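Hey, resending since the last one bounced:
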Amino acid sequence: MARKTARVTELTHPWSSEARREPSRRARAELEFDEPTVLGALFGQFDSNLVLLENRLGVYIAARGNRIQIEGGEDEVARARDVLKGMHQRLMNGQELDTGAVEALIAMANEPTLEGIITGNAEAPAVMIRTRRKTIVPRSAAQIEYMRALAREDVIFALGPAGTGKTYVAVAQAVSQLMSGSVQRLILSRPAVEAGERLGFLPGDMKEKVDPYLRPLYDALYDCMPPEQVERRLANGEIEVAPIAFMRGRTLADAFVILDEAQNTTPAQMKMFLTRFGQNSRMVVCGDPRQVDIPGGDAMSGLADAVKRLEGVDGIAVSRFTSADVVRHPIVGRIVEAYEGKDA
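The structure tokens again:
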């Protein structure tokens, strides 16, 4: 689908870099949009998107027809202006603009590459992953570098708390490469370790026994591909979902391989998994080093051990996320921050 174009006119002069270093100064900006069909989605139901911007950035926003006026501190007004331009561009590109997307644009508003990421100009090429069902763009500054690493490196370690998009973005990249034919198989794995519980013996065949542990991977798959394609590719082996124990003795060539919850592997398991790497393959290892559920409590995490040994090795990248990169509801980030603070 061809990208739509529309003009956003800024009716006030931009601020100088010197003025923006004085956050106490007050400022006002006005934007005019010449594509009225997107204004409803831009403003949100009952102006919810504008209210969100006001609450997050501490500005006052008034909408009059196709014009938006922003008032507040000079830095905050500049950020709100940039976020509104980014929101408008997303809609013109045919992308969704939900609360999470708005939060992500707010979080990235201080990044010098924000405009390039959204518009894909020559100075800063667009960073995005296209799948059959949606196009994924970065929702935090850390995701920008993560997506670049996924497109460039052979082995990527993604470390950080829940909700930062580590696994979801990796699955999206894997689906994109499977669809384009650059890999022939997609292999998703994780250790079958309960999170602080003992579930006992589960009924059913092997697939039914391990599926509960792998549910988050399935969820990401179904979000990126039509359900009938997921089922067909699972049936013919193009997509394989299995616990890490099933990886022993294999060579995974022409495959995109993802290991989730890697903090619950032992060093021996991690070494076994990483040495399955084959020709024309890519591996992504995701986990939260602070959420280790290995039975016994004193066992060393294979994830921490591998990062310590391999960080800096050519062809291996390490992407780190923090509570500031959580892209779920904002309260999730505050919860993660509170728990990390107690452990510090």
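Residues 1-6, 13-21, 112-125, 195-199 have pLDDT under 50 and may be disordered.

Sorry for the duplicate.
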